[in-house]
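Q: My collaborator sent me two sequences in one message, no labels, and asked for predicted structures for both. Can we handle them in order? The first one she listed is below.
A: Yes, handling them in the order given. First sequence, followed by its structure tokens:
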Amino acid sequence: MQIKVVVGLLAAMGALNISCRVAIAEDTIKVGVVLPLTGPFTGTGKQILSGARLYLQRNGDRVAGKKIELVVRDGGNAPDQSKRLTQELIVTDKVSLLAGYGLTPIAFAAAPLATNAEMPMVVMGAATSSVTEKSPFIVRTSFAQSASPYLLGTWLRKNGTKTAVTVVSDFAPGYDSEAAFSSAFQAAGARCWTNFVSRYKAQILLLFCKRRMSSGLTACSFSFPPGKRQRCFANLSNGAWTNRAFNWSGLVTSPTTNF
């Protein structure tokens, strides 16, 4: 995560000559950072922010003679609040570029503001495939949600798995995961047994999967945001689910961890 944040800052700095004429004339370049620092996605926001601060600590806070200042705002997991904070960063704080945006709905909400201000926006978390299409000023340094489940679906199909189930959350990143896994898995005639969109508590989803297990289910693709459901499903790696295939893809981190 920290490496991705470093790359994001460097990419953003390289984009400064697009629209940041004011910043060039100033001694300080302000980077407006909007992240979920409270609420259920706190862990994601804190990791990104820690990575940005670590880069400045190790490499210094000056680039080409300009001081880099992070102006941090807590958008929680609320798109409206994050949009308002983004507007304040542009208009009131006079930032030179935007960064952060750990969740897809938040990135969607802020994208038009970046376009209107002609300001670079470095998305460091939000993973839905269409995020980068929402503004010509967006660059993403995290990952695309579809990558991890697509690779898992391909691997399972090539290794002889015939049936699988997807369990995803009911918004854009979840649907990205489901579509990618299903398209890869079913390419050679394998069948995605059930596509189950999760609106329910973890305990109900566990019962759902256990029933499928009794019918011969050997592979699952899960896509959840952090929280109780993800922790609950982690227990499936024990007991009867040992040596079965899992995909822990998710929303504001990397395909190799949760999101």
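Q: And the one she listed second?
A: Here it is, processed independently of the first:
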Amino acid sequence: MLVITGKDRGKKGRVLKVVPSKSGKVRLIVEGVNLIKRHTKPNPGKNIKGGIVEREASLHASNVQLVCPECGAQTRIGHKMLGDGRKVRVCRKCEGSGRQMTRLKEKYTKEVVPALTKEFGYKNIMAVPKIHKVVVNMGLGEATANAKIIETGADELARITGQKPVTRRSKKIDRAVQGPQGPAGRGRWSPCAASACGSSSTGSCRSRCRACATSRACRPRGSTAAATTRFGLKDQLLFPEIDYMKVDKARGMNVSVVTTARTDEEARKLLQFIGMPFRQN
């Protein structure tokens, strides 16, 4: 832990104890931080000599910042789904790999930003467009007949993106679709599952979509909306996180890459410099 405020600002130490509070505020005792002196009476029964004793006092949790033991950066705790389905806590900066940046973020910082600045003449680095999020959507219309397909599709998306997807009913009601209790209408399933990779902790998801998904995807023709590019995947087997022996059916996905670019041309150039192939008309 790193102390970020107070007289011991800048000091590091490990957490010795978490002190509960009735008001709900979390306080911590950090080794070698916030030292106080107390006069103590001798107690031979408890092997206490007595005298002036120096010990650590508690700190409020808002006064300290977590430090990753692998990369050494100040960070927050993120969550990641492993290949065996376990959910573990990882560093948001290095994702437990000991690296400060993912491959995609490193390429963006060192190559894409200078290229875009030269192309469009940005005067402020904050004006350079970047990838805001990547939304992966999977249609599960066959779940109207078998509700277990929802769990299977959600599990596959969780393995691909590294975070739990959101399952939701379709907004459009199709009376022709037959469900377990009759036609799919209000309150009956015509579902899909979606997962959005938006934070720095999910940069590996964006890198995988760029590195392996675009090689077998339907080639993106261009931006379908301002600063947004969409393309389709025919199946989920191109991702190494998916076990081929456990796949019951090939399911396609729609991938939407949302950027902070102001125009379609800026969004196209951003994705081209990152490495996404575009079909030339």
